[in-house]
Amino acid sequence: MKRRLITVSLLSACALLLSASRADAQGQTGRITGTITGSDNNQPIQGVRVTLLGTQLTVTSNPQGRYTIAGIAPGSYRIRASAIGYTPVIVDSIPVKANESATADIALKHQTVELERVVTVGYGTLAKRDVTGSVGQVSGDAIKAIVGTPCCSGQCAVSDCSVLAVAPADAAVGGNRRRGPRTPSR
Fold this sequence. Notes:
four-stranded mixed β-sheet; alpha+beta; Immunoglobulin-like; 186 residues
């Protein structure tokens, strides 16, 4: 029973000391606040990332350009403000005191961002059914194979006559398809 009483009293004392030290630590912090504006028009800038350098504390400015970094131990700090389209700014030696708010207003200068050129090359294939119009391919060997057939021997030497398709196997039996002059049929 004594052992239990001692254990409970020790746990109670530790809880009281822990809560007192936490309250003391919370009272020993300060904060950095400020407004971010554009240097050219003095208008507030929303969405600027403000980072307390040396820590992982980062906040973003609101639509009025205001920001607050809270819970900072007393000391001297540096912050960095950055946003797309603006030159980043680092503010040095911001004194933070316990239970006080240090002010650091920042004016960002507009910066034109120029990207490198990007060249894109695309390759693709079309199915024969997707091609509108006539497409054909004839190799030199195919032309040599049909020399001497009736079409190439002068039968198509009339004006407005052209060979549409020649297949070497059909050429021997006169199966060439030809387009002749456009005259009405009987």
